[in-house]
Amino acid sequence: MFDSMNIKKEIVDSLNAMGFKEPTEVQKQAIPPGLEGRDVIVKSKTGSGKTAAFLIPIINNLKKSHYPSAMVIVPTRELAMQVTDVAKQIGHNIGIRTFTVYGGASINIQIEAIRAGVNIIVGTPGRVIDLIKRGELPTDQIKFLVLDEFDIMLDMGFIDDVKYILSKIPQEKQTMFFSATIPSEIRAVTNKYTKNPIIINIDSKEVTVDTIEHYYSIARVADKFLTLLAYIDTKKPKKSIVFCRTQINAERIHTILRKVGIPAVLMHGGLSQSRREHSLSLFKSGTEMLIATNVASRGLDIDNVSDIINFDAEEDPKAYVHRVGRTARMGKSGRAFTILTPRERYLVYDIESYAKIKMNLLEFDLSSYKEKMKGISEQTNDFGDMAMRRNSGFGGDRRNSDKRPFNRRFGNNGNRNFHHSKRREFGNKYSNQD
């Protein structure tokens, strides 16, 4: 129970009002050293309750002043707004002022808010740096620093920005790193910027494997949308996120779903910030389906997502784990469904081997859905042709070749023969599914 963790009563009351009755595993392990002022490095998946795990110690120990005392750095605008919302709820009873800064919004309004006085700043790296360089974001009184979803920041190329921010924060502070994975690049940063940290490793299987049912279907590119409709009609997901590789795919799927009467909202990097915020608000408040690209959805922490649908598969099994981690939150059950072309069926072997799971094949009779789709057949055919042109056979775009190191693309220390032999083995095993 939170009331046995030496947390202020006002905060416990706020947590009760938010429906937080029992701490999650990451909260049990991270809050006590956080309350003691220790640096912590936490490996834990999104959806495990880690936002409260770092906010509770900060809000409990923070001494209110006119200038920022705490800073939380996150990779995306959407995540920044989510963290801010949780901070406002937890700190409501003790008057903690939290403000969000990110690109795409008026910097003048953000400057005015900081000048008016704020206790916790939650922001994305680029806008935080901009405000620091303008002299509008004082950092000399920062006592608490959190870097959340640090591996995503690394993937997005923010490592130099993070190092710059760290160089502007006083050395005497409490630093907390939260990341789903901790590769060598992250260890190098944490070793440099923490002092005798407490290392906490929350088993990722708690979030992404044991409580999720994993399914896949094999479909020709032109039949992928029909397969999506069949899954929706058969499984009737209550609240789902459909992941697409490109903005074009997301736009087309969103348009066609609405034409067949399925309410959905859209989120990708090409939309204005106001529309992305509106889509996220609608999805949280009741719309049952969100169509999103990877970049737009990184770090999203949304409750009660029942299904993750991978309309476009990712080659890297790690991407699969990140995606499906958005369902089965806080120990709940969930489903993940991936649509693969015949050329991508080897990914089942890769995902099963990496995540130590079993993916179950779903086969659908698409004939009835083809009849239903006759009214918009031209759109679906265009969609299939477009997808075929873009698909290089490995889930990528020939015009934007994969620039990852060879060993990261093919695994097993870059042994292409090993990778392709396993693909042939898996393909032969399922050759009757063409």
TrEMBL record:
Chain ranges of the Helicase C-terminal domain: 224-377
Keywords per UniProt: ATP-binding, Helicase, Hydrolase, Nucleotide-binding
Motif Q motif per UniProt: ranges: 1-28
Domain DEAD-box RNA helicase Q: 1-28
Biased composition (Basic and acidic residues): 396-405
Any one Gene Ontology cellular component term annotated for this protein: cytosol
Ranges for domain Helicase ATP-binding: 31-200
Residues annotated as signal peptide: none
Highest taxon listed in the record's lineage: Archaea
Keyword Lipid biosynthesis listed: no
Gene3D superfamilies with a match to the protein in the record: P-loop containing nucleotide triphosphate hydrolases (3.40.50.300)
Region annotation (Disordered) ranges: 385-434
Xref: InterPro entries: DEAD/DEAH_box_helicase_dom (IPR011545), DEAD/DEAH_RhlB (IPR044742), DEAD_box_RNA_helicase (IPR050079), Helicase_ATP-bd (IPR014001), Helicase_C-like (IPR001650), P-loop_NTPase (IPR027417), RNA_helicase_DEAD_Q_motif (IPR014014)
Pfam family, one: Helicase_C
Statement: the UniProt record of this protein carries the keyword Lipid metabolism: no
GO molecular function terms attached to this record: ATP binding; catalytic activity, acting on DNA; hydrolase activity; nucleic acid binding; RNA helicase activity
Alphabetical list of SUPFAM superfamilies matching this protein: P-loop containing nucleoside triphosphate hydrolases
Protein name stated in the entry: DEAD/DEAH box helicase domain protein
